[in-house]
Amino acid sequence: MGDPRNKDVTLGPLASIKQYKRVQEYIKSGIEEGAELVIGGEGHPSGLEDGNFVKPTVFANVTRDMRIAKEEIFGPVLSILTYKTEAEAIEIANDTEFGLIAYVSSADPEPANRVARKLAAGRVLINTIGHDPFAPFGGFKQSGIGREGGIFGLQEYLEPKAIIS
Q: Can you give the pTM of this predicted structure?
């Protein structure tokens, strides 16, 4: 963690103090609702007290009703929920008002793609955290409407007109 202009840094600060405070509220909420804090927690990382740096935080034993499981945090906070079947995993992933991005991890591409097709998210990553700047970007549900990039992004600038005579 540190200055994102340094090539050895992989995690920089959040964009604003407002976002920093919002993420801290989520971390506090996770602790108060009984999630198991595996690593991280509230406050700044040691040595990075100046700026909007957040401790990378992981919660285990998260339940579907917890705020950290249902809302978009937009910070380095991971909530781990367990499942027994593929159908249950899909149900858990889609049980939110949001759908910006989802991630599928699997050694077998066939079930990974099957699951990805069933997730209600604008972008689904399979075994990668890479960003494709040419792929359309945008969310489902309360994560926004419309798309940026690709033909879908261009269509945002069009105003179709029908002339009927």
A: 0.80
